[in-house]
Specification:
Length: about 220
């Protein structure tokens, strides 16, 4: 694994909502969203995703790297963690935090719709608070790309906002619904694009929901 990140690449074109300008404040924002339980939320994600030592893990839309760092601690030196995000400032902060934690994550500036990884190479792909930043057609293209890079039987784990639970962010975006609609739509999209056994679970903090599915062998 290379220690140096590909952080100086130009910002790639995407119709996703890249959060480059928000990068310096992003960790504070997540602290607020989870009412100070951001670290516990990352650990809960790693636990629900059943990440094990030795696994090859990719986080798509890794932002400032908090979840990728938690994954790197879990896979230990036998495994490897990769992170991509189209926002160069996010990747710079992620690299800085990872180096400070004395861990290895191979970061790249990149997009879910064109993943720079070989077919069948990852045990698990993580997508945390990212899918709602994509227009619908990119969600489908992204899921097809994720499916391509996963090994047969590999997992896709998604953390998203649960629109059926009250939170400031859902309220501000006018996203409160009677059921966990976004997760249910994502589940259908996963089932239509090469995944099976998709499960949805509530998370403890931040009105978050967790989905996990397996690549059809
Ligand atoms: C809300 S942040 C989530 C960051 C991190 N995963 C977390 O859990 O804190 C969403 C991220 O998705 C990224 N993003 C937007 N469009 C994308 C795309 N087409 N491919 C990959 N990531 C994208 C944004 O730049 C941003 O960093």
């Amino acid at each position: 694994m290379h220690k140096k990140a590909h952080t100086h690449a130009a910002k790639p074109k995407t119709e996703g909502n890249t959060l480059d300008g928000m990068a310096p404040f992003y960790d504070k924002f997540v602290q607020m969203l989870t009412l100070g339980k951001d670290k516990k939320t990352r650990l809960e994600t790693i636990s629900l995703a059943k990440i094990k030592p030795g696994e090859q893990v990719l986080e798509v839309g890794c932002g400032t790297g908090s979840l990728a760092i938690a994954a790197a601690q879990k896979v230990e030196t036998k495994g490897a963690v990769f992170g991509i995000d189209p926002a160069p400032k996010m990747i710079e902060i992620a690299q800085r935090k990872t180096t400070k934690a004395n861990l290895l994550v191979e970061y790249r500036v990149g997009v879910i719709e064109d993943l720079p990884y070989p077919d069948n190479s990852m045990d698990i792909v993580l997508s945390s608070l990212m899918m709602h930043h994509l227009p619908d057609h990119l969600k489908t293209i992204g899921l097809i790309e994720v499916n391509r890079v996963l090994k047969p039987g590999g997992r896709l784990a998604i953390v998203e906002l649960d629109s059926s639970r009250f939170s400031l962010i859902n309220f501000v975006h006018g996203r409160i619904t009677s059921e966990n609609r976004f997760a249910l739509e994502l589940k259908q999209l996963m089932l239509s694009n090469g995944f099976c056994e998709v499960e949805i679970k509530d998370m403890r903090y931040g009105s978050l929901t967790f989905l996990m599915g397996t690549k059809l062998s």
